[in-house]
Write a structure and sequence with these properties.
Helix content is about 40%, strand content about 20%. By secondary structure, the chain is α/β, with parallel strands linked by helices.
Length: about 325
Amino acid sequence: MKKLVALFSASALLLGACGTTGLEGSNTEDNGEEGIESVEPEEMVVGLSVSTLNNPFFVSLEEGVVNTAEAEGTEVRTVDAQDDTAKQLNDINDLIQQEVNVLLINPVDSAAIEPAIESANSAGIPVITIDRSTEGGDVVTLVASDNVEGGEMAAQHIIDLIGEGAVTVQLEGVPGASATRERGEGFMNVAEDGLDVVDSQTANFNRSEGLTVMENMLQSNSDVEAVFAQNDEMALGALEAIEAAGLAEDIIVVGFDGNDDALEAIEAGRMDATIAQQPVEMGRIAMETAFEYFDGEEIEEYIAAPLELITNE
């Protein structure tokens, strides 16, 4: 078996300088930057709101935050939104009432999260969004992969494997999530002229839904040659449906994230590729950015985490 293409190392991540938001920290003495109060790591309490911990990607993201925080004596209070926008809003309001020093938020829905961001702004609590953006409110930065580029990479890989005009279907993520929109946008940037996309449906970034949606797609489109799933969980669900239908040799599957199950499936020759993110690094960067913010350092409005096409070649 050929070795997997290596992921970019953490050293490829660059934290350059741009403008800060000017939001206030919630305690301790002024560090010299107007509007920002210094908070020592061992005194800091971090509120982490994750869209769902029923997904290995976001479990790894939380791990990156927690490990980085614990190394500096920082407390992290994690809440799991369970892919429920109303629960996420309530969770964040609870964290605001607890007077956390900073909020790290991985939104379920980029539009629906806006009131929670604005509530944090009113309370003077800085916000860093991770993996998905917000459509409103002020944030220190967004730490995320370039989802548009990743979608383009997936479509181009299908063209490279099969050729232009390949009959393709797409499994979309949670409606309203920025990652869903951006990965779909990037995919269609290339696929619109390069592939024959015959169906595109949501499976909510969920493996079991990916299985069900793919089963239905196969019934409606018997000539499918390729699948792009906007995350690996859906890709693995689609793979189960394809294998159950005896079509594993006829249909290629490309996912997005680079989670452990997907990498194992690629190494075993069952899945063709994934656009790999590094969720642990994403969490680490977000937490380190919070430390830098309270040190008065200038922070980029967007911090890009690298992507890599992973295949078994």
